[in-house]
Amino acid sequence: LWYVLGVLALAVFVHLWLSKQPTTVELEAGEFEKGLLEGRFTKDNVFKLTIGEKYITFESQPEHSNKLTPDGKAEPVKKYVVPFVGGGDQGRGYFRQLAGEKGISVGYERPPSEFTGLISLAAVTLLALFLFFMILRRTGGAGSALSFGRSRGRMHAQEDLDITFDQVAGIDEAVEELREIVEFLKSPGKYQALGGRIPRGVLLVGPPGTGKTLLAKAIAGEAGVPFFSLSGSDFVEMFVGVGAARVRDMFSQAASRSPSIIFIDELDALGKVRGSGYPGGHDEREQTLNALLVEMDGFASDQSVIVLAATNRPETLDPALMRPGRFDRHVLVDRPDIKGREAILKVHVGKIKVDDNVDLKHIAKLTPGFVGADLANLVNEAALLAARKNKTRVTMAEFEEGIERVVAGLEKQTRIIPPDEKQRVAFHECGHALVACSLPNTDPVHKISIIPRGLAALGYMRQTPSDDRHLITQTELESRICVMLGGITTEQIVYNEISTGAQNDLERATDIARRMVMEFGMSPKLGRVNYRDSGRNPFAQQAYVPQSEYSHSEQTLREIDLEVKRIIDHAAQTAYGVLTTRREILDHMARELFEKEVMDAEQIHRIIDEHTTSPQLKPGTNVSLPVSPPAEPAPEAVPPAPAAEAGA
User: Each residue of 486-512: pLDDT tens digit?
Assistant: First the structure.
């Protein structure tokens, strides 16, 4: 920016300097002689007269004249140039005599050289070129027009790296694995004495937001060696061969400062399987990947450069990149458990002012599945809410509200809902909650609400697991489907028709049922067979498996659909039996929710206990429940409406 301002200032200065120069007028020698004789050129309008060997020059005004034109403007100075060739000393003497007769002072000083203008122009041009090359040098790093092949990697100074392993919480196993890398760099003799060698590369894999990049920053702060960081997309360019050149330049810079560490974030942008059907593959990217493979473990690879990479899509990486010798160690950075979440909360809570009643263990229990980024966002949301309420400290209420904002979205207090729709939403959410409180193997209900949140949810029911779960049984999955169908079943019972509010419930229930049949082998008719090709991302929960790749017959696909429908129908019958048996509880719960709009677990269980006339349904009890009537087909053309989701 300063260089650009300098060029602009120079241009303005040159313009002003040129504008102040007198206007040059050329006269013939005879015309000048005639003007002297006739009195048009006198001592009043001839100044600085100089008689040279080739030119006679003079100006129309003195140097500091303030003469004005009739309209009040400064009169411009005119510089006259009279070519004088062939006159010799006699001619110069003649003009000197004429000027003397008119009282004009004459000087024989040598006039400015004819190259003066060229010299000035050359000086300005050289100065402009100097500024241009300075700007080019300043911006000549990665991304400039003349440095396509240079690496975009950035080397971090040790004093700028203030993150250490002590600031990383909740992922202790990953930290221990990476401490060994740092210890080897600091004291290699301890490992070399036993014949060991440092891992050539370390790959950090895990869901988004778990702290992979944070671990890399901690390594940079602890290692004490040159640390280069860049993204996998930094190697991609529109010009062919640039990516491979940048890889070579990156490793060349790192090798010149070895031992050193190169950190490549989002490795999947660079290392996808060659020749695969994954989107984004092309020859230029494969050339870049080949260059990376050679630099990491090729004929002349440098053993003192450690490559650290991070990705959340390990299933897309090329096997040649994943093998030992290139990435010797794969470190899983998984979602933290309840103890890990509590440790992460302690780190972030230390940066804000919290009240003494804040129970971090309880907050960790309410946030299953949250990763480090989610917890950091939660703490920040709680602090902002406390500031909005003009509080001096963050209390437990702000944390609970922050969880609601992160999980269900922002409250839409200004959204106006007609009373009849509000009552339907209340029955819908109470149906979810009542089924969840009545069936075994379900997560405890934490809260139900009919306050609109997020983009489309008119209400929600949130369940909170009692502890972290790693396995789910078939009975638990069936109970989850029953809870999801509790809302639409309640609408069928109360209003004798259903609405579009159960769209999300049906999507999630159908997805669980289809996975039970196709992936988990939970269908007695189809057996213990996996009917879905492996292609699911274990972290992003997405699958790149087109339907055309299913190698199943039409009969098998039909049986899969029938089994999915059977599971859904059985769950709907179970939910119908629970709700019809406890219809009185359902009515009281919906009435109170309609009035209060929000109910917590204590209020829900109070209503159930007060209005329960029959024995409680105990977990594992086989109770004969009424069977729901066959569902009537819904009209084909149903106008879309915001869905009232049930939080699972």
Answer: 999 999 999 999 998 899 999 999 999
- Identify whether the C-beta of residue 448 lies closer than 8 Å to the C-beta of residue 460: yes
Confidence of residue 106 (pLDDT cuts 50, 70, 90): confident
Handedness of CA 617, 618, 619, 622 (dihedral sign): negative
pLDDT digits (tens, 9 = 90+) for 143-188: 444 454 455 555 555 556 678 888 888 888 888 888 888 888 888 7
What are the tokens at 434? 């009542």
Task: Give the chain's largest Cα–Cα span.
Answer: 139
List pLDDT tens digits, range 195-226.
877 788 899 999 988 888 888 888 888 888 88
- Residue carrying the six token digits 């069977």: 627
Closest CA to 150 of 235, 225, 80: 235
**pLDDT per position as a tens digit, 292-347:** 888 887 655 556 788 899 998 888 888 888 888 888 889 999 899 999 999 999 99
Burial bucket for residue 334 (CB in 10 Å: 0-12, 13-18, 19+): middle
Strands 23-26 and 260-265, sheet pairing? unpaired
Q: Omega before 259 cis (within 30°)?
A: yes
Measured distance CA(491)–CA(497) in Å, rounded: 6
Report the alpha-carbon angle 544-546-547, nearest 5: 140
Phi, psi angles (nearest 5°) of residue 470: -120, -20
Helices assigned H by DSSP within 257-411: 283-297, 319-322, 338-349, 360-366, 372-388, 396-408
The CA-atom distances, in angstroms, between 312 and each of 141, 220, 260, 305, 320 are: 30, 21, 24, 23, 18
DSSP string, 21-63: SPEEEE--HHHHHHHHHHTSS-TTT-EEEEE-SSEEEEESS-T
Residue 463 has which token pair?
């369940």
Asked if 153 and 144 touch (Cβ cutoff 8 Å), the reply is no
- Give SS3 for 175: helix
DSSP three-state, residue 409: coil
Q: In what order do the strands lie in the sheet with 598-600?
A: 460-463, 445-449, 598-600
Is residue 66's pLDDT more than 90? no
**pLDDT at residue 589, rounded to an integer:** 94
Task: Give CA–CA dist 312/210, Å, rounded.
Answer: 10
Among all residues, which ones are annotated catalytic?
429
pTM of the model: 0.67
CB 597, CB 450: distance < 8 Å: yes
Give, in order, the Cα–Cα distances in Å from 440 to each of 488, 612, 616: 20, 17, 11
Mean pLDDT value of segment 26-52: 76
For residues 220-239, average pLDDT: 77
Angstrom distance (rounded) from CA 487 to CA 647: 12
- Residue 332 belongs to what H/E stretch? strand 329-332
Half-sphere exposure of 376 (CA within 13 A, CB side): 11
* 84 contacts 49 by C-beta, under 8 angstroms: no
Tokens in use for 143?
Answer: 């991304």
Mean pLDDT within 614-625: 46
- Amino acid in position 116: T
Q: Measure the CA–CA gap between 474 and 352, rounded to whole angstroms.
A: 44
Q: Name the region of 441 (left: φ>0; alpha: ψ -120 to 50; beta: rest).
A: left
Q: Which residue's structure tokens are 């450069």? A: 305
